[in-house]
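Researcher: Let's do a round of design. I'm pasting the structure tokens now; please hold your answer until I've finished.
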């Protein structure tokens, strides 16, 4: 018999096996069990999160009914960096809503005809009728963000937009439309992690675009235009609300709360906590203060 317990031969299921081989088999089974446990834990966590959202998703249905009964219009703008969680939040917002009374609008590149039109025209054509909610997965603020960074518009076109958008939105609200502007804010490291997941997951690869591939390299440029956008378009009539979206579930839950708080409908369940988490939701004005403080401390924007 060889030295060391690992070479000791034992009998298992009628077959002889060394302790060393038995140990390796045990470690393999333990690793497999760990994988199963991870999957189970993830599934349980997702189920719990879905259950937490459901009472608020029911409130969204009640909110829709209020808009329909009162012939009110609502626009929700979802803006933010690529992979900030806009699409996932929109899916949770609309999951149980009445499909007859909401639309999701995600416009592609402008056509040749649209290039000759007033910039806002293609967006206005998608605006809600009475009793309807329209959710813009990116909006006219493309001009202030992506188009500005990548040079898809001229400096003159950008400046015309920045000068005109406040009046455009103010008139929209004055005529009875509820306009909610949400900006989803994700950190650079978290964006990189989400891009890597898109790159390696076949079910998510379709989300990865040429613009995405340059987002990390142009991080500082996007931060600069974000600051200018908030500074020049956050107004009393049409303020920005910033959603910290590193944590997807909390971002989705709190975004839904912000939406519900924007409409004076009668609550379905007053026992729910409708106040948004101040660690997740901040005003556009507060975000500007934080960005300015970061610039003073480090010499450049970091958010």
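Researcher: That's everything. Go ahead.
Model: Designed sequence:
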């Amino acid at each position: 018999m060889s030295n060391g317990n690992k070479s000791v031969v034992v009998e298992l299921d009628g077959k002889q096996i060394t302790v060393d081989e038995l140990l390796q088999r045990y470690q393999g089974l333990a690793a497999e069990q760990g994988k199963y446990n991870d999957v189970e834990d993830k599934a349980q966590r997702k189920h719990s999160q879905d259950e937490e959202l459901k009472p608020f998703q029911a409130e969204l249905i009640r909110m829709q009914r209020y808009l329909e009964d009162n012939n009110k219009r609502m626009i929700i703008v979802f803006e933010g960096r690529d992979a900030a969680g806009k699409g996932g939040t929109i899916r949770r917002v609309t999951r149980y809503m009445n499909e007859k009374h909401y639309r999701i609008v995600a416009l592609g590149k402008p056509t040749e005809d649209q290039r000759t039109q007033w910039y806002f025209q293609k967006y206005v054509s998608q605006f809600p009728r009475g009793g309807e909610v329209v959710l813009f997965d990116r909006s006219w603020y493309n001009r202030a963000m992506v188009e500005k960074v990548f040079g898809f518009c001229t400096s003159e076109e950008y400046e015309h937009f920045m000068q005109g958008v406040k009046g455009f939105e103010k008139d929209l609200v004055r005529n009875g439309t509820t306009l909610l502007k949400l900006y989803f804010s994700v950190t650079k490291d978290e964006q990189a992690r989400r891009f890597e997941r898109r790159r390696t997951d076949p079910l998510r690869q379709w989300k990865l675009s040429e613009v995405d591939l340059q987002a990390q390299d142009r991080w500082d440029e996007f931060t600069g235009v974000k600051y200018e956008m908030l500074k020049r378009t956050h107004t009393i009539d049409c303020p920005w609300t910033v959603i910290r979206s590193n944590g997807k579930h909390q971002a989705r839950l709190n975004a839904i709360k912000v939406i519900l708080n924007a409409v004076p409908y009668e609550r379905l369940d007053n026992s729910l906590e409708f106040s948004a988490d101040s660690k997740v939701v901040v005003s556009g004005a507060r975000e500007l203060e934080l960005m300015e403080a970061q610039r003073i401390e480090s010499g450049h924007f970091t958010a």
